[in-house]
Amino acid sequence: MDYTMRYYFEKKPKKLENIYDQVLTRLSKKQALLEKEAPPAPVITNNLWKGSESFAVPESGTKNPGWFTVPIKDTGNFILSFTAVVFPDDQSLNPKVTVFFWHNDSSRTEFRINWPGNAFPKDGQMHNYSLTKRNTDPIITHISGWLLDSDPKEGRWVKHAKIVNIALRRVGEK
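User: That's the sequence. What structure does it adopt?
Assistant: Structure tokens below.
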């Protein structure tokens, strides 16, 4: 490739410019077709998430697990979605997201219904996540959890991760 580019650049620059224009035209046509076929990104109008749509550590605290709590009023299916990256130098043990429905009962104890969790790979790549859970208990008052939970670890250590595009929505029937 280098040899061919050098040849055309030095010996036939007009031909190289012509080839470049043809390639650009083809790529532009393909891009237009893809944009026409791809459905538009959905606009989340019923987002229950009222906090910041992004969270990063160590910027927000070296070990901050990203606690959240969102009040809810209805039963139904709930979806927590976000994009996350955990960097290879993250020092936490088993980074994951932890989510649960909860309410306080009259004995002042907390009642929880856990959602299925997701472990995060420490690969430095952005991954999209979507966690879903149905709430059938009308007594439930909140969805809470930790965006960047991890197993306990002693000593000095630092998390290194970023979570963006956080959305929580209720879908379907009551």
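The chain has two helices and nine strands.
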